[in-house]
From TrEMBL:
<dbReference type="GO" id="GO:0006772">
    <property type="term" value="P:thiamine metabolic process"/>
</dbReference>
<dbReference type="InterPro" id="IPR007373">
    <property type="entry name" value="Thiamin_PyroPKinase_B1-bd"/>
</dbReference>
<feature type="domain" description="Thiamin pyrophosphokinase thiamin-binding">
    <location>
        <begin position="142"/>
        <end position="208"/>
    </location>
</feature>
<dbReference type="InterPro" id="IPR036759">
    <property type="entry name" value="TPK_catalytic_sf"/>
</dbReference>
<dbReference type="Pfam" id="PF04265">
    <property type="entry name" value="TPK_B1_binding"/>
</dbReference>
<dbReference type="GO" id="GO:0030975">
    <property type="term" value="F:thiamine binding"/>
</dbReference>
<dbReference type="InterPro" id="IPR006282">
    <property type="entry name" value="Thi_PPkinase"/>
</dbReference>
<dbReference type="InterPro" id="IPR036371">
    <property type="entry name" value="TPK_B1-bd_sf"/>
</dbReference>
<keyword id="KW-0547">Nucleotide-binding</keyword>
<dbReference type="InterPro" id="IPR007371">
    <property type="entry name" value="TPK_catalytic"/>
</dbReference>
<keyword id="KW-0418">Kinase</keyword>
<dbReference type="Pfam" id="PF04263">
    <property type="entry name" value="TPK_catalytic"/>
</dbReference>
<dbReference type="GO" id="GO:0005524">
    <property type="term" value="F:ATP binding"/>
</dbReference>
<dbReference type="GO" id="GO:0004788">
    <property type="term" value="F:thiamine diphosphokinase activity"/>
</dbReference>
<protein>
    <recommendedName>
        <fullName>Thiamine diphosphokinase</fullName>
        <ecNumber>2.7.6.2</ecNumber>
    </recommendedName>
</protein>
<dbReference type="GO" id="GO:0016301">
    <property type="term" value="F:kinase activity"/>
</dbReference>
<keyword id="KW-0808">Transferase</keyword>
């Protein structure tokens, strides 16, 4: 599998047009109400995970025939449905994983889903959360090239470790050189690329990059 796309059950209004991300290389996974979103877009559903407590029994009966494999879990479990689906996806060794329907709604689910990106460190799999307004990725020390995206004007860097050391931003409206930013810092919020291509790098720590539109 080259790309696995996980569709969770976040608010429908925050969901992108999933058809824009469909190619023959994408395997679609539904999580709880995310299964109904995939059905709505007419996309093939390889697997479905969840306790399905947000779907009525009549809705579920209509969905079963269009799903190749269904894994139903008790609501009383140690991991969220999305984490279970993500771990299964990582075990398939894809080139990348895209997660939809993981933002909006409950703040506890939002925080948990963003922290699921930490799975990309151990698995060495590129994992991205995508919604109508944002694309969210996690990064470890290194140098990264970033291209201007006309649809995503702003780029923010948020530390999720105690400190991110030596962060350097080149090609941005607000450049930085070998700067240290700590957990809770808003220094790197709402930056903008001023060239077609820029770079960001840092020496230690973990940060989240969020590319957002207005």
């Amino acid at each position: 599998m080259k790309i696995i796309a996980i569709v969770a059950g976040g608010p429908r209004d925050d969901l992108v047009n999933l058809e824009d991300f469909h190619t023959e290389d994408v395997t679609w996974i539904g999580v709880d109400r995310g299964v109904t979103y995939l059905k709505e877009f007419g996309l093939p559903i390889q697997n479905a995970f969840g306790d399905f407590d947000s779907i009525s029994s009549s809705e579920m009966d209509k969905l079963v025939d269009c799903i190749e494999e269904v894994a139903i879990f008790s609501p009383e479990k140690d991991k969220t449905d999305t984490e279970i689906a993500l771990e299964w996806s990582i075990n398939q060794n894809p080139e990348s994983i895209k997660i939809f329907g993981a933002t909006g709604g409950r703040i506890d689910h939002l925080f948990a889903n963003i922290h699921l990106l930490i799975h990309s460190i151990k698995s060495e799999t590129e994992i991205e959360i995508i919604d109508q307004q944002n694309r969210i990725t996690l990064h470890t020390p290194g140098t990264y090239t970033i291209k201007k995206d006309r649809d995503k004007k702003y780029t923010s860097f948020i530390p999720i470790s105690i400190e991110v050391k030596g962060i350097t931003l080149e090609g941005f409206k607000y450049p930085l050189k070998n700067c240290h930013i700590g957990l809770g810092s808003t220094l790197c919020i709402s930056n903008e690329l001023i060239h077609e291509v820029g770079t960001f790098s840092f020496e230690d720590g973990i940060l989240i990059m969020i590319r957002s539109c207005d």
